[in-house]
Structures are given as structure tokens and as C-alpha cells.
């Protein structure tokens, strides 16, 4: 099966369920993308700092060559890293990422974080990181309006069909929407029952932005990073509320968490290298949770954020 879609303000359709490429190992990435396409996935969410865009592109190329899918049937997403926010750096890095993927355009290209870091040439350090070539974090000077103007030019050049933002607050969205010539199509945020961000989601959707959730399973995504907050937080898969709903519908806890999001028109980008779970994660729009169940899951909110630069020792309090 393939996922239903949501209409973006750019006019294009985006699958409501996709495959996230964060933390997908280089040695398995091409095969995982290929198998995900075979299973029915059409949206792939990548970023240059994930370090696996070449391999993801290899998986796409093999699937197209084998006749599993056509390029126009895929929805490929990538992101602009913080060290490329200067206006004259946006197009060159986008073109590099397109070359890495082996495609002519991105269906969606996103500003990864609302923070500018000093430029580091890809020949010096790539994939990029929060630190420069000397191992230090150094802020850049590019304001968001400069970066966004360059992002808009990618649409003009047909390098990106849609553009969006990630990890933006309501205040930043309000500011961006005042001057954007090309409106952002999407907002991607950390979103799970421990961090519902209801006001932000509601505002973005009212303004016509499709919201995409990352880390839909809460602390699970961050356990392998040895993040203390994740290790000290009860897993959502084992929470009585989630388990109870899963048992009622004969679904897995993961499917319930993904349905809690998709039923509220929030797109999701889970990943798995297990064929069974891969299929299960895609099959999360064919059953309906009751309103009381949606509310009970939302009531688990703790305002608990895991993907916070501060938690990793970076002095960037953007949240």
C-alpha cells in the first residue's frame, strides 16, 4: 500500500507517511531505501548532515532502474544545514545535495534549524556539523530573511518544488509569513505525546502549513545517543494508555502513535529495517481512534523535548 497525501500550499501532494533517514547507517541505507520503496513508501526525508544522501540516492536509482517506481512518483525531502544560511551559499549546497541524491529537483527543501552558523566549505568538512573545522561552534550572521530569499530562488530555478522550515517557533513563523514571497509549505518539528506542541501545530495548520512530526516515538529515537533525558523517560511503547489502545484495535503501539498524529493531519516519517515493522508503520491510516482516545494520548504531554541543542552541550537556546 502507499500512504494518502496532504495538499501543500505550493499545489503539490505530500504523502502523509514517509521514511526518515536520520541515523540510517551508510552501509545499509541504499538497501533500506530500496526495500522501503518496494513496501510502498514514496516520501524519503533526508538532510545533508545525516551523511547518507549518496547512499539514499543509490537506493532510489536502483528502484527506478528496476521499474519499482518513477521519479515523479517519489517525494524526496532534504534540508539546508545551518552553516549554509548565507544567501550566496544556499544554491550551491542545494545543487551538491541534488547531485548526491542523483536527482534534478527536491520535492521539498527545508531550513533545518533557525540558526546561522559560520560557513565551512564542504571540501573542508562534509557532512557538516554544529562545529567548524577547528571543532568550535561559531555563529554566522545571516538573518532568516536573507536565507529565505535564497530558498525562494530555488523554487524559481526549479531546484525545489516546495520549500519549508523545521524547528521554528510560532513567533519565527509569524515573522517569516510577513515577508515570504513563496510561503513555506511545511513545518517539521519534534512531535510525540510527551511533546504535543499543540499551539504551534494549530497555528501552523491555520496558516496553511502542513506539519510533519519527527521522533514520533519519543525517547526511543534518542536512546542510542545516550541522552540522559531519554534514558530516564518511560518508553511510550510501554505506556498503559498506548498499550490499551493498541490492544483494543489489534495494532502495535507504534501504529497507535503514528495514527494519533496522522488522524490529526500531522505527517510522520518513521523508519525501520525490519520488513514487518516497515509495513506496519505505513499502515496507519486505515483505522480511526475515538476522540476520547486522541485526547487521552495528548494528555500525556510533559513538554519534554529531546532534540534540543542545549541537551548536547551546545549553547544555543533556540527553544
From TrEMBL:
Pathway: Carbohydrate metabolism; D-xylose degradation. Its EC number is 1.1.1.307. Residues 18-301 form the NADP-dependent oxidoreductase domain. Substrate binds at residue 112. The record marks 79 as: Lowers pKa of active site Tyr. PROSITE patterns: ALDOKETO_REDUCTASE_1, ALDOKETO_REDUCTASE_2, ALDOKETO_REDUCTASE_3. It is an enzyme of class 1 (oxidoreductase). The active site is at 50 (proton donor). It catalyses: xylitol + NADP(+) = D-xylose + NADPH + H(+); xylitol + NAD(+) = D-xylose + NADH + H(+). One of its GO terms (biological process) is D-xylose catabolic process. InterPro entries: AKR, AKR2D, Aldo/ket_reductase_CS, NAD(P)_OxRdtase_dom_sf, NADP_OxRdtase_dom. It comes from the Eukaryota. Keywords: Carbohydrate metabolism, NAD, Oxidoreductase, Xylose metabolism. Belongs to the aldo/keto reductase family. This is D-xylose reductase [NAD(P)H]. It comes from Penicillium cinerascens.
